[in-house]
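Bit of a strange request maybe. I'm writing a small parser for structure token strings and I need a real example to test against, not something I typed by hand. Could someone generate the tokens for this chain?
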Amino acid sequence: MDLQEAIRAHSDWKTKLRGAIAAKSTLDVDTIARDDCCLLGKWLHGESRPMFGPLSSHIICVTKHAAFHKEAAKIASNINAKRYTDAEKMLEIGGAYASASNEVVFAIGALKREAKL
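Reply from user aminoacidic:
Good idea to test on real output. This should exercise your parser:
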């Protein structure tokens, strides 16, 4: 698993969500809310668990990753409900989404260091 690529992929969610607001498109909230559908989530819940599951950084990464997906899903729900202004506000710096995004990036970095990946 390329954890740098995982960081980039999760950072790209902000762009995807803003794009959905601009295009007024509909998103799959149920899939976005799940933390085991993206490449990182599949790896965290699968292949990495036997190797790194006992590491505190792995446990934290799983938790922070799940929290990130829940926040992204809240924004997606607002987009689907055509509450574009609310969704845009949720993406602002200092909000729960920005915090969850930063926390998952830090958690991935910590896992990368602790697991020596």
